[in-house]
Amino acid sequence: MNDTKLIDIASALGISVTTVSKALKGYTDISKSTRAKVIEMAETMNYMPNSVAVNLRTNETKTIGVIIPATVHHFFSSVLNGILEEAEKRGYLVIILQSNEKYEMEKKQLALLIQKRVDGVLMSLSNETDDFSHINDAIRKNTPVVLFDKIAKRVDCSKVVINDAKAAFDAVSYLINKGYKKIAHFRGSYVPQNSIDRFLGYKRALEAHGIEYDPKLVYVCDNNTDFEDGYENAQKIMNEHPDIDAIFAITDLVAIGIIKYFNEAGIKTPDQVAVFGFSNWFMSTVISPKLTTIDQPGFEMGHTAVSILIDEIADIKEHKPVTHQIIELPTRIIERESTVK
Amino acid sequence: MNDTKLIDIASALGISVTTVSKALKGYTDISKSTRAKVIEMAETMNYMPNSVAVNLRTNETKTIGVIIPATVHHFFSSVLNGILEEAEKRGYLVIILQSNEKYEMEKKQLALLIQKRVDGVLMSLSNETDDFSHINDAIRKNTPVVLFDKIAKRVDCSKVVINDAKAAFDAVSYLINKGYKKIAHFRGSYVPQNSIDRFLGYKRALEAHGIEYDPKLVYVCDNNTDFEDGYENAQKIMNEHPDIDAIFAITDLVAIGIIKYFNEAGIKTPDQVAVFGFSNWFMSTVISPKLTTIDQPGFEMGHTAVSILIDEIADIKEHKPVTHQIIELPTRIIERESTVK
DNA sequence: TTCTAAATCGAAAACGTTTTCGAAATCACC
DNA sequence: GGTGATTTCGAAAACGTTTTCGATTTAGAA
Question: Contacts of strand D, CB cut-off 7 Å?
């Protein structure tokens, strides 16, 4: 409980607080000899600046806030790891909050972060949010925001995303090129744009290859925490459309539910029905057959989001104009067993 | 960029900063009428206190730090979710740092958190740390620390753990009671106590049931990020000891590697060799056969760790004596397919 | 009306830094 | 020894709050 502060060093040395502060911060108007004495004394007294006081004086906290909509799992784990690594590298601390897909939560948490004077915030939007004034408020107050993954096009800030529609288009095109003809889609709920985009990619790929889109082959899986949805809808679709030969699933989670059911029901994957996932979560290599999927680079997403944010923080500090970037990270197909006969 | 502060409200109302502050904080020496005026003006000017200034004055940040040794995955995801939920509930923010199993990192990060004036810190030790002076320093400086999962008995602070030895003992006893006779153990590396304790539990269970412990049946799996270790050692043990009938694995991850190999090599699980995991990670229900395992309550661990920490913070603030608690969370066997014939 | 008690307010210090600006001391040079 | 330039230091203000303590006003009682 013996926190040493500037004044302790100063009085130990019989000099002023100002001189101590300057010596420690490398000001040039302090003689080498007193600087040396100060540094040594600071060392022996185990001095560490009180960050709160520094923050108040300098008006920056070297801290960024992160708001994620869901629990820390799967995709968001990767993003978080990317965020933590890059933030550490750049000397920033990170505060994490989860909105549980609630707009009110998200709004409250963003306000809290601003009140805490974080230097910037990273966020992935909740499914509920269709009003973005809280974000615009933050930006107007000079707290830069960068959106990742679940973004809103209408907000004027930097964003880092993948192209869900294109990734889905590629996935379905891959299936078509492999010779699959009757391809179903297990989509996500109707609200998040990612879910919509992946569905659109699916639809466009069919049309681009001259296959008629059949809405009856689209099933909704809106449970994001378990694979039961995939399991049950797989059962359902094999009753209603036993002649399908492939399913493009919105996530690896539902893909795994599908494969689980197929394995239990004796339906051969990929021989009778191929399965294509999305995200390349760890468990996609655990299941048998191993899952063909889209690699969604969560770690890189976290990395670049932090990088952009910290650059913007620096620009704002130097009163430079900040130019917002929209970064679209590349995805790629990871071909495994569930689609190759 | 128009942050309103106390003085703005004060001058708008023609009163002093003191009165505004008191009115907002519910001091009783402010008349109802001015209080009402202040509150209304604060509302319309959208006042939010500057947390940094408040922190400096009150000497508390309502923030806790968390240091985890590994990447945010599997078990630590659950813990983190528990931490985030409980912290939010109690009005605390959380800063997360990862030490990557490096003692020097851990030490540096703890110092950083103290410098940032967090009110307390939660940590799970790195494999390298066998010197605990940094933790004792923190505690001596009145920053309470509570250790979880990977702890050090010698540090005088609260801890929340599971009983690894007992859990392992239960697991192996379960196998013995099921009739398995030649039970191997795929242990973790030699350094973390958890790994040692689980090994000891294994050994004691054998001895308690009159089965001779054979060190040749113990294999080391020290890769925590992939299941290759389990896979390769499974291959090895089936060459060297083809007559084993069960394996107790240190984590679900290596258990899954084992099952993967067994599935590919045509070795029937559990008929020829049963497999028992540890932790009850999500993927243990993904694999076929589904994995019998020990439920390690990560979410509850995060919850109670935060709860204890915040209680200690309150005690310290009120200069009450703090009594450290050692909480041992119960584990239980989750019986699935990999051990029932 | 006067005196006391209660109600209401504000000046100022404090939290621990950083930074501006001026003062003092030293130096170089003639 | 005097001048100006340079080096070295420190007083003080500032960041935005909270809180103590004293001052002033008001109400109540006699």
Answer: A 14-19, 22, 29-35, 53, 56-57, 59; B 3, 5-7, 17-18, 21-22, 24-25, 29, 47, 49-50, 53-54, 56-58
Polymer length of chain A: 341
Segment holding A324, helix H or strand E? none
CATH 3.40.50.2300 fits A62-162+299-330, yes or no: yes
Extract the runs of DSSP E, i.e. beta strands, from B206-319: 218-220, 246-249, 274-276, 293-295
Domain boundaries, chain A: 6-49, 62-162+299-330, 164-296+334-339
Q: Which residues touch strand C (CB under 7 A)?
A: A 3, 5-7, 17-18, 21-22, 24-25, 27, 29, 47, 49-50, 53-54, 56-58; B 15-19, 22, 29-35, 53, 56-57, 59
Kind of pairing between the strands at A218-220 and B218-220: unpaired
Q: B154 phi and psi, to 5 degrees?
A: -75, -10
Give B 245-274 residues with CB within 8 A of chain A. 256, 260, 263
Q: CA distances (Å), A58 to each of A62, A71, B59, in order?
A: 10, 34, 18
Using the predicted structure, report yes or no on whether residue A223 has a pLDDT greater than 90. no
pLDDT tens digits, one per residue of A109-153: 999 999 999 999 999 999 999 999 999 999 999 999 999 999 999
Q: Which of A1, A61, A72 to mutate to test the interface with B (most CBs of B within 10 A)?
A: A72
Distance B170 CA to D22 C1' (A): 70
| A235 neighbors A264 (Cβ within 8 angstroms) | no
C-alpha span between B21 and A181 (Å, rounded): 70
pLDDT 10s digits, A3-50: 899 999 999 999 999 999 999 999 999 999 999 999 999 999 999 999
What CATH number is given for B6-49 in this structure? 1.10.260.40
B290: left (phi over 0), alpha (psi -120 to 50) or beta: beta
d(CA B230, CA B157): 35
pLDDT digit string (tens) for A64-92?
A: 999 999 988 889 999 999 999 999 999 99
Class of domain B164-296+334-339: alpha beta
Domain B60-160+299-329 fold is Rossmann fold (3.40.50)
Answer yes or no: is pLDDT of B1 > 70: no
Q: Which of A193, A147, A150, A148 is nearest to A168 (CA)?
A: A193
Q: A55 — contact with chain B (CB < 8 Å)?
A: yes
